[in-house]
Amino acid sequence: MKQGSEVRIGYISSYNAGTGKAKVFYPDRLGQVTQEMSIFAPFGISQIPMPDDQVLVLHLSNGQEAGLIIGKTVGTGAAMAAAGGDITIAGTAGSITLSDLIKIKNKVL
Asked: pTM surpassing 0.85?
């Protein structure tokens, strides 16, 4: 591997719930699987990837095993986004904002 950091797209091979780390495989590298790597937690929110999820990985300059899983790439599946001071959760069935969920909760309770 060349010197310097490298950003790669890979797929989750396995997730270790005990450590909160995951292994990533790269199909273009004959299915090479990394050792467990830490997963970026934006704003302290843990990401729990599933096997075969496509992820963005930042490999550090000191080797292929030293890296950080930045997160899952989002296509047509579920997603979360923050805009205009609200968080929107979207999936194949539709979407809802966090404020709408809180309003529903307040009406029910």
From this structure: no
Pick the CATH number of 6-72 from 2.40.50.230, 3.30.360.10, 3.40.50.300, 2.60.40.1190: 2.40.50.230
Residue the block writes with tokens 């273009």: 28
What's the pLDDT tens digit per position in 38-55?
Answer: 999 887 778 888 899 899
Closest Cα to residue 75, out of 89, 87, 92? 92
Domain boundaries, the chain: 6-72, 79-108
Closest CA to 12 of 68, 73, 53, 56: 53
Kind of pairing, strands 32-33 and 21-26? antiparallel
